[in-house]
Amino acid sequence: MPTLPASVKTHIVIPARFKSTRLPGKPLLMIHGKPMILWVAEKAQAAHFADDMCIATDDAHIAKVCTDAGYEVVMTSPDHVSGTDRLAEVAAIKGWSEDDIVINMQGDEPLVPPLLLEQVKNLLVQDSTSVMATLYEPIDDYPTFMRPSVVKVVSATVNDKQRALYFSRAPIPCDRDMVLALEAEESNSLSTLTSASILPAPKNAYRHLGLYAYRVSLLQQFVHWPQTPLETIESLEQLRILENGSNIAIAAAALQLPAGVDTAEDLARLNTMSLAEFQSYN
Q1: pLDDT digits over 189-242, tens only?
Q2: Measured on CA atoms in the order 254, 256, 261, 267, is the torsion positive or negative?
Q3: Which candidate in 78, 123, 127, 188 could, as Cys together with 133 as Cys, close a disulfide (CB 3.0–4.6 Å)?
Q4: Start-to-end CA span in the chain (Å)
């Protein structure tokens, strides 16, 4: 396993903003009596391979909750259009070396096992020609595959390195035969919805996990790249990296990652878990 020189550091950053279209104030929503952002910070702190961790926010309320709990907070601009832009500001404020690695740990995924943080970091270390690394997991059922909130990814293996080709909210890759079969059922006035609900997802259907490792050198470039057409259409910031010709290393997650918190229903799901089950993801 390739190792980093002692001079190269690994930093975990948790971007957390108050504004959210579906769940305003999401980082401060309570899960088992504790703000969600603090559960995420606990997971980051348990990732002992990292040299340090901090929360990046533009909100004073989030900052106070985190600093009161003993975590380092970096205040950032409220004008960032993506979490990657926010991480770039943190790297600049902290003066991190361009060779350092930054792990973006989403502030709305309190069940992320620290093992996955280490996996995505190692993936980037092993692929010197990629500027970013991320993970995926298989999609098993057709309704999940069709859901726009589930980001799909297609990839290819080049010289023994697996690289992302495209990310989309659309159902990719498209299984032509399955689509034609569903269209035939619909034309025969059968219930497509009922049939689709029991179908498996197509082969090689993968859900992208919102967990990234970047080289600081990429973050320094990223902020100077304008938003790209596909990034804007899909509202997926990682497409800016692909559209600028850079490589993204990708691999299957070593552990299943439970869904994060996007809706009130997701929050309720976590609160209905027993505390022991909630804390068992490590």
Answers
A1: 545 445 555 667 778 899 999 899 999 999 999 999 999 999 999 999 999 999
A2: negative
A3: 123
A4: 23
* Identity of the amino acid at 105: M
Place of tokens 């957390």: 16
CB-CB neighbours of 116 under 10 Å = 22
Contact 215, 101 (CB under 8 A): yes
Residue for token pair 């004073």: 60
Query: In 10 A of CB 279, how many CB atoms?
Result: 13
Q: What is the pTM of this model?
A: 0.87
